[in-house]
Write a structure and sequence with these properties.
Elements lengths: L15 H11 L4 H12 L3 E7 L2 E6 L7 E6 L5 H12 L2 H8 L6 H8 L13 E4 L9 H16 L2 H7 L3 H12 L65 H16 L10
Antiparallel strand pairs: 1-2, 2-3, 3-4
Protein name: Putative Zn finger protein
GO molecular function, one term: zinc ion binding
Organism: Nocardiopsis composta
Length: 271
C-alpha cells in the first residue's frame, strides 16, 4: 500500500497516522481483496460511515440493491487509562501544543505503548470485523472498502482514532487542558516553582463604617487646616571642629583656587 484511500471528490493527503493505520491492518490480508475494496471505496460504495466508542459502522453498496452492513469493533479504553494518557501527554508541552492544534505527533503512539495501550489496531485480528454479505473472506471487499474510507477520514481528523477508543475529541482535549493546569486534574494549589507561588496577595483595606445617623451619610468632616507657615527643613550646622592639619591644607590650596577661579576661596569653618 502507498497510502490511504481516496473517497469521491477528496484528495488523499497520506498523513502518517492514516498510513500507519492501514499498514497495520493490511499485514497478512489478501492483496486481491484489499484491491477490490479500494475500488469500491473509490467508486463511492461506502455510505454513512460513523465512528463511535468501540465501533465503526458503515453501509457498503455491493452487487445487490440493498447495501451491506459493516461493523468494525475494537476494545475501548477504561477511564483510568484515559486519565493516565491525558496526564502523560499534558506533561509534554510540545505534544500538548500540537494536539490542541489538531495534529497527532508521531510520539503519541509511543506514549500509548508505554502505558500499555494501542493507538492503532495491530492488525485485522485486533478487530471484530463483520459484514452482512455472504462472503466469508478475511476481509471481504466491503470491510476493506470501509477500512479505506476510514483511513481517508483519518487524514482529515486523526481524533477519530481516539473516538473509536472511547474518547471524543472535545472530551479528550478538555482532559488534556485539565491536566495541564497548575495543581493537577483538580486545579487546586500552585505548581511547584510557579512564579509568585509564595507571594501572598495583599489584603484589600476594610471599607469605612457607615454612619449610624442617616443624615450624617450626606455630610463629610471638614478637611484638616493647612499650616500658616510652610514647613522648611532646618539648615545643617557645621559644628564639628576641623581635623588636625586642615588649616595647613587650606592655606596650601588657597593660591591654586585663586588662580583657577579668579576669586577668593569661600570662607570655611573658623580656623
Amino acid at each position: 500500500m502507498t497510502g490511504g484511500a481516496q473517497a469521491p471528490g477528496r484528495a488523499g493527503r497520506d498523513r502518517w497516522w492514516s498510513r500507519r493505520f492501514f499498514e497495520a491492518l493490511e499485514a497478512g490480508a489478501d492483496a486481491g481483496r484489499l484491491e477490490r475494496g479500494r475500488g469500491y471505496a473509490a467508486g463511492g460504495a461506502v455510505r454513512d460511515l460513523k465512528v463511535s466508542a468501540g465501533e465503526v459502522l458503515a453501509r457498503v453498496q455491493g452487487s445487490r440493491a440493498r447495501p451491506y452492513r459493516v461493523s468494525l469493533i475494537r476494545p475501548r479504553l477504561e477511564e483510568d487509562d484515559w486519565e493516565r494518557l491525558s496526564a502523560a501527554l499534558a506533561g509534554q508541552p510540545l505534544f500538548r501544543a500540537r494536539l490542541l492544534a489538531g495534529e497527532l505527533p508521531p510520539e503519541v503512539e509511543r506514549v500509548f505503548e508505554l502505558l500499555g495501550a494501542d493507538l492503532f489496531p495491530r492488525g485485522l485480528d485486533d478487530l471484530v470485523a463483520t459484514c452482512s454479505c455472504p462472503d466469508w473472506g478475511h476481509p471481504c471487499k466491503h470491510v476493506a472498502a470501509a477500512l479505506y474510507v476510514l483511513a481517508a477520514d483519518l487524514d482529515d481528523d486523526p481524533f477519530l482514532l481516539l473516538a473509536w477508543l472511547g474518547r471524543e475529541r472535545g472530551e479528550f482535549l478538555s482532559g488534556l487542558r485539565r491536566h495541564a493546569r497548575p495543581g493537577g486534574p483538580d486545579g487546586a494549589g500552585e505548581q511547584a516553582g510557579a512564579p509568585f507561588a509564595d507571594t501572598p496577595h495583599p489584603a484589600a483595606p476594610a471599607p469605612p463604617a457607615l454612619p449610624e445617623d442617616p443624615e450624617a451619610f450626606w455630610s463629610a468632616p471638614d478637611p484638616p487646616r493647612l499650616p500658616e507657615e510652610p514647613l522648611r527643613p532646618e539648615p545643617a550646622l557645621f559644628t564639628a571642629d576641623p581635623p588636625e592639619g586642615a588649616e595647613a591644607l587650606l592655606d596650601a590650596l588657597e593660591p591654586l583656587y585663586t588662580r583657577l577661579t579668579g576669586t577668593e576661596p569661600p570662607a570655611g569653618p573658623s580656623r
